[in-house]
Amino acid sequence: MEPYKKHESIAALMDRSNVDTDQIIPKQFLKKVERSGFGVHLFHDWRFNDDGSDNVAFELNKPAFKGAKILVAGDNFGCGSSREHAPWAIADYGFNTIISTSYADIFYNNCFKNGILAIKVDKEQLDKLITEINANEGARFVVDLENQQVITPAGNGFTFDIDPFRKGNLLSGLDDIGLTLKHADKISTYETQHKQTYPWLWA
Amino acid sequence: MKKTMYEKIWDSHLVVDEAGQAPLIYVDRHLMHEVTSPQAFEGLRLSGRKVRNPHSILATMDHCVPTKNRDLPIADPIARKQIETMAENCRENGLNLYDMKNPNNGVIHVVVPEHGFVHPGMVVVCGDSHTATHGAFGALAFGIGTSEVEHVMATQTLPQKKSKTMQVAVNGTLSKYASAKDIALAITGKIGTAGGTGYVIEYTGSAIRDLSMEGRMTLCNMAIEAGARAGLVAPDEKTYEYLKGREFAPSGQYWDQALAYWKSLTSDEGAVFDATITLNAADIAPQVSWGTSPEQVVGVDGLVPAPESFTDEIKRKACESALAYMGLTANTKITDIPVDLVFIGSCTNGRIEDFRIAAEVAKGTKVAQGVTAIAVPGSYHVKKQAEDEGLDKIFIDAGWEWRDPGCSMCLAMNGDELTKGQRSASTSNRNFEGRQGKGGRTHLVSPAMAAAAASAGHFVDIRNL
Would you call B257 an interface residue with chain A, using a CB distance cutoff of 8 Å? Predict the structure, then answer.
C-alpha cells in the first residue's frame, strides 16, 4: 500500500445519502479474479447511458470534477454489500479521500485497507463543504492526515478525529497482516488454550 | 460485571488488546464463496503465506452459478474463470469445497447451518455481508472485505473495533402470515439502514423465542440491512435441537461439554445495552418495500408514501428519487401494484420452511398471465427435501419454474435478472437500484406474500386469503 501523503486536490461532490456498494460497483463487474481495473466501472449504472456514452447529468461526469482525489458525499456512504470491489473501484478511479457524515461499517474498514482516508464530519460541517463546492465547482482542498486537518479555499477548513491505529497504517502504508503476525506467539498461545477450552471445535 | 452475549463472545475471543492498536480477535469459522475470495488467495500466494487453519474454512459456489442447465459449461467466460479459480484455490490449500456439482452445494448461508458448521459462541466471518445470518445460533457472525479474508486465512484473527450493543425487543405474538421477514423489514423501516451502524443487535422478546431456527436466520440475515455489524439471538432448546446430530456439531463426549458452554452465553439478567428498540409483534403487518432502500417499507394494507409526508429533507429527496426509479405514484395502494416476476429464494428466504409456506399459498393456483415465477431452493438439500414433500409439484402445477440452488436473482450475477422497467416481488434482501438487473424494480416481501402476488399478478394482503 502507498503511504498516504499530504496533498491538494479537487473535491468532487455527490450530494446524496445512502449511496450503496451496488451503485459504487454494480454486480456485473464482480466476476474478475484480479484486484485492479475496477475504476472504469465505478458508478457504472449512474455514470453511463445505455449506449455507453457518458451520462452528463451524473455528478462525477462534470468537467470541473475531473481528476478529483477527494469525494464529498452524503450520509451512510457505502451501505449494503461487503464487496471490497467498491473501494478498489474508488481508489482505481483516483480518489484517496472521502468526506461524509457516516459510513457503513464494512465499507469503512475496507477503505483503510486500500489507502483511502474516510473522514467523518458532522452535518453542519458537511453542509458548509457542500455549499462551498456548489458555489465553486473545482475547488481544491488540502488534506493533511498527519495534522488531521482539511483546508478549503473559502475557509471552511476543519480538523477531524481518526483512530490512531488506522492513521498510522495509512501514513506508513504498512501491511496489516505483517503487523498482526508480530503477535504470532500470542496467537499460538491463544490457540493452545482454545483447544483445551473448546476441544469439540478441534475434534 | 453483568455482560451481554456480545460482550461474552468478544471477551472470550480477545487475543491481543494493547493500547495504540486495534484489538485482535480470534476467528473460529471462515466461510467462503467465489466472488470475494480470489484476490485474497492471490495476496497469500504473492506474500508466500499459508492458510493457518484449513479446517476452519467451508467454501461453496453460489453467486455466479447457473440455476438451470447445470450440466452445460457456464456460458459467461469471466464467471467460468471465477468458478474454476475457486476450485483451484480450494484444492491448492486443502479446503472443504462444495462445488457446483456437489450434493451439498448451495448458498453459503443456507449450506453452513445445514451441516452444523456454526455453533453458539463462535466468531464467524465471511466475505459477504449476509454472514449476519449465523447470529441465529448465538454466534458473532459478520461480513468482511477481501483484504480481511486474506488476513483471516493468514492469521486466524482480525483487528476489530468493539461494537456498541443494541437490544431489539419484539414482544407479543405475530399475526398469521406475518413472518420473520416482516419483522426484519419492519425493524429496518423503523430504525433506517444506518440505524444499527456501529452496533451489534441482540433480538429478544417472545416473538423471537417463538421463531423457528430458520425464522431466526431470516431475521439475523437482515441485521446488515439495518446497518448493524451483526445480529444475535440467544441459543435455547430450539438451537440445541437443530444442531444435534449434524455433521460438524459436537458429538459423543463433547456434546454435554459444548451444551454447558452454550448455556452460559446468554446475556446476564440486568446486563446493559447501549440502545434499546421495542416493537409489538401483533402490530407487524406483512411488509412490502416500495422504494430503493430496505428502509422504504410499508404494511401491505398501506399506501406508497408521498415525498411531502417526510419532514426530514434527506428522506423526502430519497422518496422522490425512489418513486421516479420505481415508476410509482404517491398514495397508490400497495395492493394495486402489479408484478412481472416473482422470485422465492436467497440466503434470506431460501430454506425449506420458506418453500413450505409459499407452496401452501400457491397450491391449486395458477401464476397470473404475463407473470414469471421462479422458485430457487437455497441448497440441493432444500431442493431434495422439498421434492420429497411434493412441493416442487405444487409449484410446477401452478406454473412456476423449479430451479437448481444459487444466489440467483438476489443479486442477479448469474444471468437470472430483471430487464429494464420490470417489477419483481422478491424474497431477497436488497431493493437497491439495479440490484436485480439494470432498471429493474424490486419489492421485498416474505415467501407467502411473493406466492400470493404470483397468482394475483399484484400484491395481495395474505391475511385476507
Answer: yes
pLDDT in tens, B160-213: 999 999 999 999 999 988 999 999 999 999 999 999 999 999 999 999 999 999
Measure the CA–CA gap between B110 and B179, rounded to whole angstroms. 18
- pLDDT tens for each residue of B14-48: 999 998 889 999 999 999 999 999 999 999 999 99
The reply to whether residue B78 touches residue A31, judged by beta carbons under 8 angstroms, is yes
Q: Which of B73, B63, B144, B86 is nearest to B414 (CA)?
A: B63
Q: Which chain B residues in 125-144 lie under 8 Å from chain A, judged by CB atoms?
A: 127-129, 142-144
Strand-strand pairing, B372-375 and B401-402:
parallel
**Could you tell me the three cell numbers for A55?**
451520462
pLDDT band of residue A174 (cuts 50, 70, 90) is confident
Helix (H, G, I), strand (E, B) or coil at B183: helix
Nearest-angstrom CA–CA distance, B133 and B129: 9
DSSP bridge partners of B168:
B203, B277
**Global pTM value:** 0.96
Q: A with B: how many residue pairs have Cβ under 8 Å apart?
A: 174
Give the closest-approach CA distance of B282 to chain A in angstroms: 29
For residues B218 and B348, the answer to whether their CB atoms sit within 8 Å is yes
HSE at residue B442, side-chain half, CA atoms within 13 A, is 28
Angle, helices B38-47 vs B146-155, to 10°: value is 50
Asked whether the beta carbons of B438 and B462 are under 8 A apart, the reply is no
Q: Which residues pair with A13 in a beta bridge?
A: A72
Distance CA B465, CA B449 (A): 11
